[in-house]
Amino acid sequence: MVDTYNYQPVYFTCSNGKDLSSILPSMLIRSKITGNRLVSLPFSDFCEPLLSSIEESEKIKDAVFNYCNEQNLKFIEFRSSETKFPYETEFFRTDLRHLLFLNKTEDDLFKSFSENTKRNIKAAGKEGVKISVDNTSEGIKKFYELQCITRRRHGLPPQPYKFFKSIFDNIISKGFGDILFAYKNVEPVAALMFFITGEKVLYKFGASSESILPKGTNHLLMWEAIKKYNQQGFTQFDFGRTETEHEGLRRFKLGFGAEERIIYTTRYEIKTKRFISSDSKTTGFHNKIFSQSPIWLLKLVGKSFYKHLG
Question: Where is the BioF2-like acetyltransferase domain (predicted)?
Answer without folding.
Answer: 112-246
